[in-house]
Write a structure and sequence with these properties.
The protein contains five helices and two strands, in the order αααββαα. By secondary structure, the protein is mostly helical. The protein folds into two domains: 43 residues, no CATH class; 66 residues, His-Me finger endonuclease fold (3-Layer(aba) Sandwich), CATH 3.40.1800.10. It has a two-stranded antiparallel sheet with strand order 1-2. Strand 1 and strand 2 form a beta hairpin. It is elongated. The relative contact order is 0.08.
Length: 126
């Protein structure tokens, strides 16, 4: 689109509907992953800047198990942007397993403690 001014851009898009729609579709396809990731983060109270800062603060590792998030040529282990489901307040970055574990325990600290105590009671019992 030839205009940087939002009003001119809107006028151009209105006058060139098919071209504007094609341009919009191309942009979405070229940037689909980033757009979807940004929407997902926003829905959990995070921004891409917060994720980047947390990765540095956490040493690129899960806040619970300390497993390092691996990045290789053909695979990226995505950290999960954990958040309080009631307040949507961002908490920390977690690996998939720790994020799922908290979810299965309904983010309940007492259930997490009970699960830890249960596992400790069976440690070495065999």
């Amino acid at each position: 689109m030839p205009y940087a001014n939002p009003q001119h851009k809107k006028e151009w898009a209105s006058a060139h509907k098919e071209e504007a729609a094609a341009s919009s579709r191309r942009y979405y396809e070229e940037n689909r992953t980033a757009i979807l990731e940004s929407r997902r983060l926003q829905s959990t109270g995070w921004t891409t800047e917060m994720v980047a800062a947390s990765l540095v603060e956490q040493g690129n590792a899960c806040m619970i198990c300390r497993k390092v998030f691996k990045v290789s040529a053909n695979h990226t282990e995505t950290p999960y942007a954990d958040h309080d489901h009631d307040t949507m307040e961002p908490r920390s970055l977690l690996c998939h397993a720790c994020n799922v574990a908290l979810g299965f325990l309904n983010d309940d600290p007492e259930l997490c403690i009970a699960a830890a105590e249960y596992l400790k009671s069976w440690k070495g019992a065999r």
